[in-house]
């Protein structure tokens, strides 16, 4: 797969990580996480989208996603498993199936104001059927265009992460365990970086597990023609690309490229290019330091007016409106853009 494109997406969508909880549970126990949109302001303020993941270090537990009030994708997972919810879905973890509870928002406000994450939780009633978990969060931009998140399943499980064959992932998990126990200065920053690396490695393992016949953004990175087109787009998004020039660089006809690209990604090459330009522009607008005219040039538009029209067509708001919204005090009412 093309790590250049994956790295570009990860940096552009501003991936950030945090490790918040060490859980030492004893049976019977149950914990339920609300949709991550309801937690974002508590765990990673400023993040557009939050992913939650759980590393089962010892023991086992049941983990399932909640959909329309019902638990789905329920499975028992053992030590060395990582379960992620890339789309931020509500989910439940428990010592036995068919257990539910209310989400506990209070755990994000520990009674000890001096306490620093990762916070230690000990749910349960002292039974022998226990589990030890590390629970973390990842924040990123999702709008206007994050092809990686859209490419991931609603529940992502990776097993055997503590085996001798798991390689780098085992080392990352052990580093998280060591750092969380050490409580050294700068530990939160170290844990955040380790959390991001765990996510990247899980994505790579998931991509490598997909069948060769699979479609979607991740398999497309390995396609000789679609993958090259993606590398060209991400390598120089400001270039005045047309379907003709892109196909010529890839080495196929425009009809072949358009057909393969659309079949793999569900969108034509030029639409993908425009969406990715808008994602880059979104990040620059959120940064606040770059003038809108400079952003327009950076993402390949000859005029600020043309860029503003394209941005509003893609996002529903003008670049100026998007920037002012990020600066508006809490509680202020947005005006028309």
Characterize the structure shown.
The chain has 337 residues and is of the alpha+beta class. The chain is 41% helix and 19% strand. Helix 7 (226-235) crosses helix 8. The longest helix has 23 residues, at 187-209. Residues 328-337 have low confidence and may be disordered.
Largest sheet: 6 strands, mixed
Quickly count the helices: 13
What fraction of the residues are assigned to beta strands by DSSP?
15-25%
CA radius of gyration is: 22 Å
Count of beta strands: 10
Order of helices and strands: HEEHEEEEEEEHEHHHHHHHHHH
Helix content: 40-55%
Give a brief outline of the structure:
The protein is of the alpha+beta class and 337 residues long. The chain has helices at residues 3-12, 40-43, 147-151, 168-182, 187-209, 217-220, 226-235, 243-250, 254-265, 269-287, 292-298, 304-315, 319-327; strands spanning 16-25, 30-33, 49-59, 61-67, 70-77, 81-85, 91-94, 119-121, 131-140, 156-158. A hairpin with a 2-residue loop joins strand 4 and strand 5.
How are the elements arranged and paired?
Elements: H1 3-12, E1 16-25, E2 30-33, H2 40-43, E3 49-59, E4 61-67, E5 70-77, E6 81-85, E7 91-94, E8 119-121, E9 131-140, H3 147-151, E10 156-158, H4 168-182, H5 187-209, H6 217-220, H7 226-235, H8 243-250, H9 254-265, H10 269-287, H11 292-298, H12 304-315, H13 319-327
Parallel strand pairs: 1-8
Antiparallel strand pairs: 1-9, 2-7, 3-6, 3-9, 4-5, 4-7, 6-10
Helix pairs in contact: 1-7, 4-5, 7-8, 8-9, 10-12, 11-12
Q: Can you give keywords for this protein?
A:
single chain, about 325 residues, alpha+beta, 6-stranded mixed β-sheet, 4-stranded antiparallel β-sheet, globular, disordered C terminus
């Amino acid at each position: 797969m093309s790590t250049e494109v994956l790295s570009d997406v990860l940096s552009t969508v501003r991936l950030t990580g945090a490790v918040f909880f060490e859980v030492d549970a004893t049976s019977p126990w149950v914990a339920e996480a609300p949709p991550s949109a309801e937690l974002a302001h508590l765990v990673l303020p400023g993040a557009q989208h939050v992913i939650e993941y759980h590393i089962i270090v010892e023991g086992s537990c049941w983990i399932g996603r909640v959909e329309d009030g019902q638990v789905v994708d329920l499975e028992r997972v053992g030590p060395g498993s990582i379960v992620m919810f890339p789309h931020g879905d509500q989910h439940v973890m428990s010592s036995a199936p068919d257990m539910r509870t209310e989400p506990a928002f209070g755990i994000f406000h520990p009674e000890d104001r001096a306490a620093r994450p990762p916070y230690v939780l000990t749910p349960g009633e002292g039974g022998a059927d226990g589990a030890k978990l590390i629970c973390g969060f990842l924040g990123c931009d999702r709008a206007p265009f994050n092809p990686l998140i859209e490419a991931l399943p609603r529940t992502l499980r990776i097993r055997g992460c503590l085996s001798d064959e798991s390689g780098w992932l085992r080392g990352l998990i052990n580093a998280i365990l060591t750092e969380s126990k050490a409580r050294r200065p700068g530990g939160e920053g170290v844990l955040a970086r380790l959390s991001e690396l765990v996510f990247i490695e899980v994505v790579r393992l998931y991509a490598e597990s997909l069948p060769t016949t699979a479609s979607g953004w991740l398999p497309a990175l390995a396609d000789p023609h679609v993958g090259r087109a993606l590398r060209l787009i991400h390598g120089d998004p400001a270039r005045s690309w047309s379907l003709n020039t892109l196909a010529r660089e890839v080495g196929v006809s425009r009809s072949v490229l358009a057909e393969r690209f659309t079949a793999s990604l569900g969108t034509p090459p030029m639409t993908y290019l425009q969406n990715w330009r808008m994602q880059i522009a979104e990040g620059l607008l959120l940064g606040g330091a770059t003038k809108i005219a400079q952003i327009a040039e950076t993402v390949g538009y000859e005029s600020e007016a043309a860029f503003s029209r394209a941005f509003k067509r893609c996002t529903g708001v003008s670049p100026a409106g998007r920037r002012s919204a990020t600066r508006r005090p809490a509680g202020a009412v947005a005006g028309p853009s």
